[in-house]
Design brief:
The chain is of the alpha+beta class. It has helices at residues 27-34, 38-47, 62-71, 90-100, 103-129, 134-143, 148-152, 171-183, 198-204, 220-229, 276-285; strands spanning 16-19, 22-26, 57-59, 86-88, 163-166, 188-192, 210-215, 233-237, 244-248, 252-256, 268-273. It folds into 2 domains: 7-121, no CATH class; 156-285, 2-Layer Sandwich (Endonuclease, Chain A). Helix 4 (90-100) packs antiparallel against helix 5 (103-129).
């Protein structure tokens, strides 16, 4: 089973550094995680320059390299290399995985991006509600003395999934929050989306929960093929709604400004409604 790297024993968060005001990873660390030579990582950029603009990937200058080495003596920087290391932002790592196209690259990239998201959620939460913790967090991350999961446990992660605005291009963050919301359901998920399609079904097919999808545009062929293999979704054809809604266990209620197949394509918001009268009214309209 050595074709898939055992990430449990590797602290991905210790491989993330802040340079030029953004969080990045070294080409050598990505090579280690993806189980390929560092030169192959750099060849991917050389052969696809249009896919790696400066905000996705850049080469450290001499001062940045020296600063990284002085602050983090364990940084995976080869002293034998004639060139300075290349680093990748979260978007660059995602792009790199699409080029390498391997089972290892896909699995590792998901773990890496989950770590980026956890770090960002934790920092954003503390900046808003507990600003005095931010400096402490940054010191801990800089010194590589605490694992991100230990830090993440210090606050209620359900607060993340209440109200959030996403901007164009934030595909992974929007997708990640959707998964966080769906994971809050114990028994039942009701989704109202007039453009529910394959993208949404791919997310729901492995959930061991009762799911109801309400839509006016359910493709009959797609529905038939899905029901021939999976039995966790009940489809309701209804044209009474314009916006998108998620109802969890008939007690948690969210609205979404974008169709679930288009998350991240344009700016939109996901909000939690606390007033139960709206939830009750929607359930009545659906006879549920």
């Amino acid at each position: 089973m050595n074709e898939i790297i055992e990430l449990e024993n590797i602290k991905v968060e210790d491989m993330i550094y802040e340079i030029r005001g953004v969080q990045v990873m070294l080409d050598s660390d990505l090579g280690k995680l993806y189980q390929v030579e560092t030169k192959r990582i750099n060849e991917a950029v050389k052969n696809n320059p249009e896919k790696f603009p400066g905000r996705f990937s850049f080469v450290l200058d001499d001062s940045e390299k020296e600063n990284l080495w002085s602050k983090f003596s364990t940084a995976n920087i080869s002293s034998k290399s004639r060139s300075n290391p290349r680093v990748f932002t979260e978007q660059g790592i995602y792009m790199l995985a699409t080029i390498l196209k391997s089972k290892v690259a896909t699995s590792v990239s998901i773990t890496i991006m989950d770590t980026f998201v956890k770090m960002r959620h934790y920092i954003n939460y503390n900046k808003t509600f507990l600003p005095h913790r931010v400096l402490l967090l940054e010191e801990k991350v800089d010194d590589n003395t605490k694992r991100i999961n230990e830090l993440f446990d210090k606050f209620d992660c359900e607060d993340i999934a209440k109200n959030h605005i996403f901007f164009k291009g934030e595909f992974y963050d929007a997708y990640s929050l959707l998964l966080d919301i769906l994971d809050r359901a114990e028994d039942e998920i009701i989704i109202i989306d007039n453009y529910a399609g394959k993208e949404l079904l791919d997310i729901l097919k492995d959930l061991d929960k009762k799911i109801i999808i309400v839509s006016k545009n359910i493709d009959d062929t797609l529905k038939e093929k899905y029901e021939s293999q999976y039995s966790n979704i009940t489809f309701i054809n209804d044209d009474s709604f314009h916006d998108r809604f998620i109802i969890l266990d008939r007690k948690l209620f969210y609205t979404c400004g974008a169709s679930f197949k288009d998350l991240g394509k344009k700016s939109f918001a996901i909000n939690e409604f606390r007033d139960t009268k709206y939830l009750i009214k929607i359930l009545e309209l659906l006879n549920l």
